[in-house]
Design a protein that fits this description.
The chain is α+β, with helices and mostly antiparallel strands. It has three helices and 15 strands. β2 (30-33) and β3 (36-39) form a beta hairpin. The longest helix has 14 residues, at 10-23.
Length: 184
Amino acid sequence: MEYFPQWMDRRESNALLARLQSDIDWQQPSITLYGKSHPIPRLQAWMGDEPHTYRYSGTDFTSEIWPDYLASLAEHVGGIAGVEFNSVLLNLYRNGQDSMGWHSDDEPELGRAPVIASLSLGAERDFTLRRSGTTRQAHSLLLQHGSLLIMKAGMQSRWQHALPRRARVTEPRINLTFRRITAV
């Protein structure tokens, strides 16, 4: 991993957060876990340079075409990560009750050793890590407003990550996870 705590300045981060909150058509799809359908505990949007299909937790998602400002941001982030990103999964955590459980971004559409860049805006939240195959948390990193986290090739096969609930968090957080969808 590589972490840039103040990758985007506060004014620019605030402006992007406000724009995403108002511009994006946020959805709350359901996913299948252990044979049951559940609404995900956050809002999301899936966008890219063309309609890409991405499957996780038994559900297919097809991306909307991203606006120019997200395409430009993907190009800038990709220059730092060394990847030509063609899609972004946007997650809106409305408060500390919204979360993301333990997982690895290891779907076939992402290729054998995906690089994922994660831009955080809004409320600071803990990003927790554990080795794949274990149940014990190994690390925690507080993701700051305007920070960029790059999960490098090989990380998804060795580690799982989560964004746990935090009762004291009352403000929203938006996370943009830039990805490269490849042919399966």
